[in-house]
Amino acid sequence: MTAKDEIDTSRPHPARVYDYWLNGKTHYEADVAAGDRVVQVWPGVLLGARLNREFMHRATRWLAREAGIRQFLDIGSGIPTEPNLHQVAQAVAPETRVVYVDNDPIVLRHGQKLLRGTPEGRTAYVHADFTEPETILEAPELRETLDLGRPVVLSLIALLHFITDERGAYDIVRKLMDALPSGSYLVVSHATADFDPDLLTRVAEAYQSSVAEGQIRSSSEVSRFFDGLELVDPGVVVAHRWRPDDGESQPDITDAEFPVYGGVARKP
Q: Which of 176, 189, 173 is nearest to 85 (CA)?
């Protein structure tokens, strides 16, 4: 294991903080402390983490069932939390293939849990950084699992608000989508300050001071990630309002209580 792959438990990491909010078991004291600082500012973050996860589940089911997609590239996959994306997709279509990507060594250590799919399908894990898209696209694990001549879903759940404009967020998404064929899809969820700027400013300050840098974006700025793509109805909306399942009870909350946009779009 290289120095880059060593787990530093003295500093919080976004994947482990998120795991803590989801009531997982793979986090450390530093992650709990950082997560609690955000909870003190925004108690609703615990519900928000769950609703964000549910958006991923709904989008994945829709793409597998309605759009007929059988290949997914999930970047920023985080620590395995069941049901994982491949479990949702393969429940619809067992032959589905999924590649997970993350740069946290602890996700790498637990990556075997992401590889337990159906006999008909395939799953793989790539240890790489989103800001280095070439290393993702050229990874043997990806090339051996996905056919880039057929449609692929690029899933970026709660990832892009960690990537500033200065680090090339829009260019990176464009490079990844350029590598995928017509009929592919982009899925994004992203925090916003559109509904309560003061709250999100305080959340960003609490988070960025201890966990990671980032950039909260407006509706138009989140929509820009979908430039050149065909948005699926209802477009870019607060994530828990994106195609709720029939019979699914809707949380009795305002948009300001879950300030996260979600959207899905098709590459023409």
A: 189
* pTM attached to this predicted model: 0.91
Distance CA 200, CA 113 (A): 33
| pLDDT at site 214 | 84
**Contact (CB, 8 A) for 163 and 130:** yes
Residue 2: pLDDT band with limits 50, 70, 90:
very low
Query: How far is 200 from 261, CA to CA, in rounded Å?
Result: 13
Q: DSSP letter string over 160-217?
A: GGGS-GGGTHHHHHHHHHHTS-TT-EEEEEEE--SS-HHHHHHHHHHHHTTT------
User: What are the beta bridge partners of residue 188?
Assistant: 156, 263
Average pLDDT over residues 213-220: 91
Residues 6+ away with beta carbon under 8 Å from 180: 148, 151, 152, 154, 267
Q: State residue 176's pLDDT score.
A: 98
Q: Please list the residues that pair with 72 across neighbouring strands.
A: 98, 153
Domains of the chain: 3-243+254-266 (3.40.50.150)
pLDDT of residue 1: 40
User: What's the pLDDT at 199?
Assistant: 84
SS (H, E, C) 88-126: HHHHHCCCCEEEEEECCHHHHHCHHHHHCCCCCCEEEEE
Residue 97's φ and ψ, nearest 5 degrees, are -115, 135
Q: What is the Cα–Cα distance from 82 to 158, expressed in whole angstroms? A: 17
Burial tier of 118 (Cβ tally within 10 Å: 0-12, 13-18, 19+): middle
Query: Over 90: is that where the pLDDT of 127 sits?
Result: yes
